[in-house]
Amino acid sequence: MKSIRIPAYGSADAMQIEDAPVPECGASDLLVRVVAAGINPIDWKIRSGAMAHGAERRFPLTLGWAAAGTVAAAGGDVSGFKSGDEVCFYAEFARGGCYAEYVAVDASQVALKPRTMSFAQAAALPMSGQAAWMALIETARIQPGMRVLIHGAAGALGSVAVQLAREVGVEVVGAARGAGLDLVAGLGARQVIDYHRERFETLARDMDVVLDTIGGATQEASWSTLRPGGLLVSTAIAPPPGRAEAAGVRGAFVFTPPEGRVLAELARRADAGRLQVFVGEEFALADAKHAHRLGEAGRSRAKMVLHVAAPASP
Length: 314
Known about the structure:
By secondary structure, this protein is of the alpha/beta class. It has ten helices and 16 strands. The two termini are about 20 Å apart.
């Protein structure tokens, strides 16, 4: 099969399209024929070696940790899926391998693809969607009437977060820029802040929750926007020890494990017309190197997706 692999950690130049063996399908696995693979910042962080600590990897390493495709085979212990099912997922970081024509993934991390989504949209949903769910639904436990500031509100994670929050009945303040301002307003945000032209910390006050998808100076400036006892949830970087207590608030860092049950909840919302996923740029598998360069340089437009294979004929 064709796959994008690296022989060692390094720059995007290390990425090569190669022939690789089709992965073995374990007893609890699904072997999925990949139609589209999502490109996420974690991909180039792993490729570069920035996340090498504490995780041994075997090279050559096939990149990619989110995808949508069709089930080619199911392990003997798997129930609920069959050959030909259209599915989407993000795989645990110890495995991955989604920039390839086939990938083996634990069935517990998989959900049926939303019927109303293309394969490209379905590949863009798993990682960002589950991160938004974990941050707002399971960690912040948002409730109707709360006020929530969402950074990067027009991004893949942020746009899902805005929609989840609005469905709960939360008052959303979204920080975005450029064309993203209209997108966030259209998703139902009560207030939209142009963070390139305005200082969000002077406009957003008494927030119950801040969703930090950026880290750094944005996270530091966000502490002052919270009400006493409020919560900053970061998906970008863990808050410094003691920083939340010094501000009289709470802080949490969310690292999202892949869970098929959560992805299934998101898929149901998509099919009910309550959740949209926005794909920016789409590339052929052979152009993965170019996509990584754009992403690392901050020059990508919204969510990037690789097209690996054409959907199977009905």
